[in-house]
Design brief:
- This protein has two domains: 17-96, Winged helix-like DNA-binding domain superfamily/Winged helix DNA-binding domain (Arc Repressor Mutant, subunit A), CATH 1.10.10.10; 135-337, 3-Layer(aba) Sandwich (Rossmann fold), CATH 3.40.50.
- The chain contains 18 helices and ten strands.
- The chain has helices at 2-5, 17-37, 39-42, 50-57, 61-73, 88-93, 103-110, 112-119, 121-125, 135-138, 141-152, 156-165, 168-172, 185-193, 208-217, 252-262, 284-296, 305-315; strands spanning 48-49, 77-80, 83-86, 175-179, 198-203, 223-226, 238-244, 263-273, 317-325, 330-337.
- β2 (77-80) and β3 (83-86) form a beta hairpin.
- The mean pLDDT is 93.
């Protein structure tokens, strides 16, 4: 009886994600500020009390203690007595000495510049220009490292490598091209699985230092070829071309024609992107990405999977199929160049 009298105080919607969204934003800012302050590097080696941490980062001890306790609540720091040390998650992803470090990715996702873009959506809706797109500036070394960190921190990386390695094209391949490959981790992983493969990473000249850095780290030699696939022709006689997360701006058909010419008859194109469904509202990450791209570049476009398949067919490719990878936000699409196909 008492519960019935309280029904007017219950909202009709089941659950309220809005508060979680708002709190998630606050937690993200807390994470970023702690990262920029150097908290996680300071606590990476040994337990320290708040006074020691404050001395090392140049902060007020009482305030530092409050921040550290909040980071403990988030699971990023562990507390024992009056000392603190980074948690396993922070040791893995926030220590610059870890091969899974994600500092560049954090800087990319939570930088003040990116936050300003989202904060100006109302201005953008009214027709104002919010971002400034320059692909040579955008794909700087820090951005490329951020993409590497995103790949290594996601189970979709392994799934993608295995899907390619188990394909008949890979079994017989001698040469493959990682188009706009940036960090080169996909090429490096495939090279490790098949050492006699000639692996070429094709990207802008200033990206080479990052690619070769990862090549040395994983002890797998890849060839770096400098160029801009929007302007330059691609090296020919390829058995496989990888084109991952590059078909978001304009000129997709133009680039695909270059890929087609670069492949041998029967060669395979593997492309992985955040494709939208027919409603253009799912998966969530792709829909949010479509909006974010437009804030920066009015010429950008996130394709629906069916749209991309139609462009492939128009260009001359034969669609073999597609499969979701990782958390299903990304899809791996496989197509062949017409011609003799190995059994």
């Amino acid at each position: 009886m008492l519960e019935e009298r309280l029904l007017n105080f219950e909202p009709p919607a089941k659950g309220n994600p809005l508060v979680d969204m708002a709190r998630g934003y606050q937690e993200s800012l807390l994470l970023y500020q702690a990262f920029k302050a150097g908290i996680f590097e300071t606590l990476a080696d040994a337990p320290k009390n708040a006074e020691t941490v404050a001395q090392e980062i140049g902060s007020v001890p009482e305030r530092t203690c409050l921040l550290l306790d909040a980071l403990v609540a988030l699971g990023l720091v562990e507390k024992k007595g009056d000392t603190y040390i980074t948690s396993e998650v922070a040791q893995t992803f926030l220590s610059s000495r870890s091969k899974f470090y994600q500092g560049d990715l954090l800087d990319l996702q939570l930088s003040p510049e990116r936050r300003r873009h989202w904060e100006r959506i109302i201005d953008w809706l009214k027709g104002e220009k919010v971002g400034r797109w320059n692909h040579r500036e955008t794909f700087n070394p820090s951005f490329v490292r951020a993409m590497a960190q995103a790949a290594l921190g996601h189970k979709g990386f392994k799934e993608t490598i295995l899907a390619i390695a188990n394909h008949s094209c890979f079994q017989s391949a001698r040469r493959f091209l990682d188009l706009g490959g940036g960090h080169g981790l996909y090429a490096i992983a495939l090279k490790q699985l098949k050492p006699d493969l000639e692996a070429i990473v094709f990207d802008l000249p200033h990206v080479e230092q990052v690619t070769q850095g990862y090549s040395r780290q994983y002890n797998a030699e890849v060839i770096f070829m400098a160029g801009d696939f929007h302007e330059n022709e691609l090296p020919a006689e390829q058995d496989i071309v990888l084109a991952f997360d590059i078909f978001y701006p304009s000129q997709t058909e133009k680039v695909l024609r270059k890929v087609y010419r670069a492949l041998k008859p029967g060669g395979c194109l593997f492309t992985k992107h955040w494709f939208l469904d027919a409603t253009r509202t799912r998966p969530k990450r792709a829909a949010l990405f479509a909006l974010h791209l437009k804030l920066n570049n009015p010429m950008s476009h996130v394709y629906a999977l069916k749209e991309m398949e139609e462009i492939f067919v128009k260009t001359g490719f034969q669609i073999e199929g597609s499969t979701p990878v990782g958390d299903s936000a990304s899809t791996l699409l496989v197509a062949r160049k017409g011609g003799e196909i190995d059994a």
